Request: fold
Amino acid sequence: MSLPLLFLHGWGQSRQVWEKQRAAFPDATYLNLPGHGGEEDASAWVESMAAQLPDTPSIIIGWSLGGIIAMQLAVEYPEKVAAAALVSTTPSFCSKQGWGHGSSDELFQAFRSGIETNSAKTMSRFFALMFQGDQISRQQFNEIARIAVDRDNPPSEEGLKQGLEMLEKCDLRHQLNQIIQPVLVMHGEQDGVIPVSAGRHLAESMVNSTLLSFDNCGHAPFLSHSEIFNKTLEAWCHKI
Reply:
């Protein structure tokens, strides 16, 4: 596994969400998205993340919104992306005509309303939603929340708004055939944020992809199913 590994988290979280991957991938780089985890806000997210990639082609592991950015990087900066692992992500977050694999409008509007009212409960509810479908105890959930949430550096209001705007507007369905790098798609069968059917669509639409689905698993398999997630990712990376 000689290629650099870079991990990109999702909306409303931070690089701390990869806490269960750090021991398995100690040499990887864990980046914060703009306005998240104490990172400064930025107007051009993809360009901002591209500027942080090394010159050597890298394997990018992107979760949810981070996966959307990973796909954009693979298309716009193919010389910097050797491969991509796409975790619980989608080419188009919102449902629309001709796309039945998006998240519900009700869910999206709840996120938007929470930001507008500056409700701290919004992020707590979203974090809990991430584990809908997982068979974990309350104690296990509390422990995951303790290690995975950066409470000292909450996302900025601007970062949340920009991330939500990206989720609303981004539609990569017609660019998937441009992603020719090796891709590993990983998705929970019971994902309550992004339907697993979106992950299947990704895998079917890219020329060099592998699909792994996790049963009894929600939106964050790297936290709820970290052992098998890490072993699978490591084995796949060794083949690149």
Summary: Strands lie at 5-8, 29-31, 58-63, 81-87, 183-188, 209-214. Residues 226-239 form the longest helix (14 residues).
